[in-house]
Amino acid sequence: MFERFTKDARAVVGGAVEYAEGSGERSLGAECLLLALLDREGSRASFALAALGVPPRRDSVRRALEEARRRAGLSRAESEALAGLGIDVSEIVARVEREHGAGALSGTPARPGRRNGRRPAFRPEAKAVLERSLRIALTRRDRHIGDEHLLLALTVVPGVAAEVLADHGVTWDSVNRVLYGGGEAKAG
Predict the structure, then answer these.
(1) Tens digit of pLDDT per residue, the chain (188 long)?
(2) Which CATH number does 2-108+119-180 carry?
(3) What dihedral do alpha carbons 127, 128, 133, 135 form, nearest 10°?
(4) What is the rounded CA–CA span in Å between residue 154 and residue 148?
(5) What's CA 63's distance to the chain center, in Å?
(6) CA distance 80 to 20
(7) Domain ranges (residues) in the chain
(8) DSSP readout, 60-79?
(9) Under 8 Å CB-to-CB from 115, ≥6 apart: which residues?
(10) Which of 60, 104, 150, 154 has its CA 20 to 30 A from that of 166?
(11) Rounded to 5 degrees, what angle do the CA atoms 142, 121, 25 make?
(12) Using an 8 Å Cβ cutoff, are 66 and 38 in contact?
């Protein structure tokens, strides 16, 4: 599948691996793909993000992802579902952090970096983003998978990345409208 990726899409995947390795994670999630996508400049996805008002430095998106990471990667929807069962995620996070320090549930080890010389494995939601980006490209009859397809996939694969994007006004409909004008004609 990677042979169908454009240079920009490959750079996003490579950047996601670097994010995971840099934080010492054993696996790479959709959040790593989103962070790497935010780093891109001069690509179709960066054009769409700018058109939708996501500021160039994208600090608010990064903060939202970090906050989700503090909650052990739970999305707001998952936290609300647990609240419906009488489980207060905020209280659990506060208790754990009082005992073990800030960010104790983030899963970040004390010493970041590559473990045992192995690259981080792709978690199911990251694989789902890659697979969905392929389906989106095929549906659009695009020959290659670009970073815009990754952005579209990130908006629809359930989880923290999609939630954070939606909170910033980046949804399937809004990205599709910017890139394709809502119809079949492509922008730029």
Answers:
(1) 677 899 999 999 999 999 888 877 788 999 999 999 998 889 999 999 999 988 765 777 777 777 777 766 777 777 778 888 888 877 777 777 677 766 556 555 444 444 556 778 999 999 999 999 999 999 999 999 999 999 999 999 998 899 989 988 999 999 999 999 864 444 44
(2) 1.10.1780.10
(3) 120
(4) 10
(5) 13
(6) 27
(7) 2-108+119-180
(8) HHHHHHHHHHHTTT--HHHH
(9) 24, 26
(10) 104
(11) 120
(12) no
Q: pTM to 2 decimals?
A: 0.76
The owner of tokens 């079949």 is 184
Number of residues that make up the chain: 188
The H or E element that residue 121 is part of is: strand 121-122
Amino acid of residue 43: S
The residue type of 135 is: R
Place of tokens 């970073």: 147
The two tokens of residue 152 are 């579209």
Q: From residue 128, give the alpha-carbon distance in Å to each of 52, 57, 66, 125, 136.
A: 24, 27, 21, 5, 12
Query: CA 83, 85, 91, 92 torsion: positive or negative?
Result: negative
